[in-house]
Amino acid sequence: MNTNKKKKILFIGTGGTISSQNSGEGLSPAMDAQELLRYCPDIINYCDVECIQILNLDSTNMRPGHWIMMAQAIEENYNDYDGFVIAHGTDTMAYSASAVSYLIQDSPKPVVFTGAQKPIDVIGSDAIRNLTDAFIVASDDNSHGVQIVFFGSVICGTRARKNFSKSFGAFGSINFPEIARIQDGRIARFIVDDVPSKPKFYSYLNPNVGLIKLVPGMSADILNYIINQYDGIVVESFGVGGLPEYSDFYNQIKEAADKGKVVVMTTQVPSEGSNLGVYRVGSKLKDHLRILEAHDMTTESAITKLMWILGQAKDFDEAEALFYTTIYHDILYKD
Q1: If you ran DSSP here, which 8-state letter would residue 46 be given?
Q2: C-alpha–C-alpha distance, residues 306 and 63, integer Å
């Protein structure tokens, strides 16, 4: 960490459990970013902090327009700060971190998401540790790009997933190593990338992307609705991937592709990714239809990347090229 001069960090509040208090009907976001800082006096040892509050939402209510708000807040303040910390609810944090990874690419400055499983004013909360760790990472010279910092883990923004609904170690890195670990204020780095020189900002996502999770015995008729409602479709299949040969799944997906919809096949299995070419139920799709395959990407990244792509691409060829372009470690296997 730079010991010559304190970094200047912008703290962005968006709500979440970390800021919640009992509303009489359950927990609801109440405290703003400035109030959260009062619980973490040690942060002043690492950096100088200024605060803004752009949202105060339970992250269940987070939507693509809010991701754009986060990215715009960072873009508007980018030249004035050395890094950014975003306090966010845990339930959709992986989606937000992934989306912001596409809206702010090649950032030489860190954008760090964090939150908590218990409100910051509750005895035994994980909030103080997570928030302090987030500012430590945001203040470190080797930090850049979008990351999630949670319970000692530093996770690439395109690789995070919430794996536990209650435990403090809620987030894991899917199909990619953690970037670093934090213990007692010290960062142990496992991955050190070259720091980009200039960020690229994007201001548009197409939110019209749907997700369908296959269930044994379900009818393909549900795809009619999905195809008609959405510009892009992510299909979570079984195992390494494929479509059931009963009902009419293949023709429904073919119809979607023929209509210009962008279809991404992925897997419900959390780790190791898809490989459509292994079984007949998948190779038929891979060989004959113009679809995309998520391979080792997380579902969260596949969805948010598709939203970003549909905001940029003019046709399938361009969408395909963008989808298989690695952005901050989001996809490694592309066969």
Answers
A1: T
A2: 15
pLDDT of residue 258: 93
The β-bridge partners of 15 are 57
User: What are residue 27's DSSP bridge partners?
Assistant: 22
Measured in degrees and rounded to the nearest 5, phi and psi for residue 82 equal: -90, -15
Write the single-letter amino acid at 288: H
The full DSSP string for 241-293 is ----SSTTHHHHHHHHHHTT-EEEEEESSSSS---TTSSHHHHHHHHHS--EE
Query: What element of type H or E holds 49?
Result: strand 47-57
Overall pTM surpassing 0.85 (yes/no): yes
Residue count of the chain: 335
Burial class from Cβ neighbours inside 10 Å (0-12, 13-18, 19+) for residue 315 reads: exposed
| 3-class DSSP assignment, residue 183 | strand
CA distance 277 to 270: 19
Count the Cβ atoms, other than its own, within 10 Å of residue 58: 18
**Active-site residue identified among 14, 17, 114, 266:** 17
Percent of the residues in the chain that have a pLDDT greater than 70, as a whole number: 99
In whole angstroms, what is the distance from residue 131 CA to residue 113 CA?
9
Q: Which residues are CB-neighbours of 21 under 8 A, at least 6 positions away?
A: 27, 28, 30, 31, 119, 121
**What's the rounded Cα separation, in Å, for the pair 146 and 118?**
23
pLDDT of 167-197, one tens digit each?
Answer: 999 999 999 999 999 999 999 999 999 999 9
Is 17 tagged catalytic? yes
Q: Residue 313: count other Cβ atoms within 10 Å of its Cβ.
A: 18
Look at residues 147, 150, 117 and name the one whose alpha carbon lies nearest to residue 133.
150
Question: What is the distance between the alpha carbons of residues 135 and 10, in angstroms, rounded to a whole number?
Answer: 10
> Taking Cα atoms as reference points, which of 171, 137, 166, 136 lies closest to residue 151?
171
Q: How many CB atoms lie within 10 A of CB 254?
A: 17
